[in-house]
Please model this.
Amino acid sequence: MDEECLCFLDQRKQAKTQWVQDPNQSNVDNLNFVKHESIRHFRNKKKEFLKDEIDEFETNSKIKNIRELCRGISDFMKGYQPRTNIVKDEKDDCLQTPTIFSLGGENISLSCSMYGVSDVRQREIHTAEPLVLEPSPFEAEIAIEKLKRHKSAGFDQIPSKWIKVEG
Model:
């Protein structure tokens, strides 16, 4: 989206408001013309964008930059996928990620109350396996050293390279 695209959107909006205010044949023809021109422009912009993406893939392939090539291809194949981390509070209002972290312990008790847990601290854990002791600081350091870089983040959404840098 550049200034020219925004200009086409404004023209289309103005043509539509003119048609709504006065639905005569000249305004209908003007609206159709502006719609077709804007669609043609957006189609050409999309073709240019895709051509640039393919050119970037070709250059990464020629210089044997396999990591960027694979990352670009996988992003291209997946497309845009927005993340939705939404939780409802006691009033059934939707909370998004930043507000969840600001609630702190209140949110944990809310989510536990949804599953029938009355008090988070008094809940007993019944498992078939024996409980594993927490690792020592030395074991944690060894595990962090063994982490590989450029791997996808786990359920906590923290990449391994951040953990290796921060320790």
